Amino acid sequence: MKKLTKTERCKLHTVLVSSHVLLTVREALAVAPGITAVRASALRHSRTDAFGEHAVDVVMAARFDRARLAAVRWDSTEANIIVQEAATGLVVNLKRTTHSYTARSNAA
Questions:
Q1: What residue segments make up the domains of the chain, in order of their start?
Q2: pLDDT digits (tens, 9 = 90+) for 6-24
Q3: CA dihedral defined by 16, 17, 20, 22, rounded to 10 degrees?
Q4: What's the pTM value of the predicted model, to 2 decimals?
């Protein structure tokens, strides 16, 4: 098996994060049939500061409408493409060179 390039690793990470978010959104819509939309975010623990406080960064946040997701061709589209095209209010910092999600720090 050949070693993955940085671009390939970053794309895999992007698809993985998107897949987890979409899975969570679909589960939320399945258990609550009365709701029409779901807001979801992916967070990561980034570092511990000098005071022992854990910093949390937002990797991705978005709103997903039930009607829009119902029209998605799940079997033929990658998760990151679904997120980019089906989400509204998408907040993500995408690196241009590797197309990977990078965290948006909430520190001022």
A1: 6-105
A2: 888 888 888 999 999 999 9
A3: -110
A4: 0.80
